[in-house]
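ok so I'm stuck.
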Amino acid sequence: MISHLRGRLLSLTPGLAVVDVHGVGYAVSLPLPTYYEVQKQPAGAEVSFFIHTHVREDALALYGFWTERERALFERLITVSGVGPRLARAILSGLPPEVLLAALAAGDVARLTRIPGVGKKTAERLVLELKDKLIAAPGPGVPAAPPARPAQTGANAELLHQALTRMGFKAAEAERAVGALGGRVETEALGDLIRDALALLSSR
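replied:
not stuck anymore, here's the structure
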């Protein structure tokens, strides 16, 4: 199993990094807190991920995290019945780790159901199965989103749409969110746009 990966950053989009390790390109799925950290790095920089390797009969998928604590929280999430790696990544992307841990500890089902893909039954299972376990789990030491950086004009609308669909929203929902943000899409940082798009979509 791959548990750690270090190499040259070939490409980065919300939710996915491609890393060159001795001539082999590894596709690594990322939750948004990790994406925000990698976004700080210039193209071609060396990056390092803590990896969870998910093996199925027909595929092998790598999920990468900036910190061991973030990976530990992901691995707690996938122990819950009905929560696979994709949904666990969406959960980590939908709420900052410290907010997620607080919601689980408080049994805040309503807040959890605002995450795309998390229905009431799944939220209840998350609380039931993790509330006590997370008392001993690693703390919420995942770095916060980095400060805003200048947006790349002409690219943000497509990247924002891609990020939202990878997080579980339908294409039409993603289009509505992009449209609702209007001219901000091409003038503001992508991380800020993703945060505000999630707030718009979660309030509907």
